Target: Alpha/beta hydrolase
Amino acid sequence: MSLPVPLRLLGRLILALLAVVGLAGLFLALVVLTDGARSGLAAWLTVLAAGVIAALWRGRGRAWPGRLWPLVPVAAAAALTASVCVPTVPTARQYPPDLPFVATERWSLSTGSRVAVYRHPPSAGATRRPRPLVYLHGGPVRSISVLDHRFLRLLADQGYDVYAYEHAGGGRSDLLPMEQYTISRSVRDLAAFVDRLGKGPADVLGFSAGAIVLTRALAAPDTAARVHRAIIAEPGPMDGPTALISGPQGRPSARGLAPAPTGARATRVPRYAVALGLIQLGLLPPDTGLITQAEGVNAFKAADLGSDTASAYCARDAGRIPTEDTAENFSFNAAASLRIQQTIRDSPSIAPGLSRTRTPSMLMIAECSSQIRQWQTGILAAHPAIERTHYMPGVGHRMWNGLDDNNERAAAVITAFLQGGPSPLPNYPTRADISAFLHDRR
Model:
């Protein structure tokens, strides 16, 4: 007995949908197998050809136009997957416009990197400090946020001649070939930048990913010689063994509590959702043929960071997280960032080199840090020249965030250390306090 017409139609619809899903899955598998060759067209043409052949085989022996019905899901799958192969942003690098409140210079370093440089000179009337202060921002491989520039201006008001540069491949700095993005290159760029300043050893403030670069620079004698004093603020994992550590973080952050970020997202566009997602999962290499490096940078938006921004603030600040950057200034090279992070995970321990450094240093740890505590205390344990550690109450990973007096408090401990004066906060934790700190400050 044959099925009623409605059931037959439903069955055909289900089979068609399964065919579309199967072809789309085959397309994704081929994208991975071909490394996204030719913007995904190699995978798309292969799936289209396979689908047409299969559809014609299924339609054999049928009368026209029934012979064409098996081609419908093939056409639907082709249309669906074609969106992954078509760029929706420029494929040549589009740099952010220059900021109105600070000049952008571009320096060619001896490493071959060409980086965007910003200078916040000492304010008129402030006591000029004898050494330049170099800022290494977080990310890695993104633009320096407007929020960061405001904080650097505060340090300039204290008499510091502040220089900052965006890591190669980030912000307004030129791109590198993907294989050249390594943590070692970042360290060499720091040394080359200080040399390019031509003012002798500099004081260096490294935040987050910048703190990793600074820590590794201190473990390398040649680079450490270029650093007069070092401030290591909220560091990530310094090497492969440290990256394997899991354990307590700080007190609760605003992740999951703050409103979802608004604005355009690359991950709402099929092409970039697939490309960035497969790169993040490690199924495609950062230099995939699916999207160019420049296209990926052009496409990525601040909202694509998702809850990462909220994780940099304390839970109590979930309802008042500031806007860290403007849409025009924001830029993030996600593929290059992942590549650098992988080179950190692949690197051997730097603890032996760090144990030999004599560069006076200060470590800053946030109360609501989203970083693993052992990433921070591991540096404290290995680095004998850390003179002060400051546990910063009331702030998350983003310690200078423009809320309340957080910027002023961070600037106060930084300037006290650089000037060798008494700090407004206790020296805590010390090396002797590490065990208790890990137990109590969760």
In short: The chain has a mean pLDDT of 93.
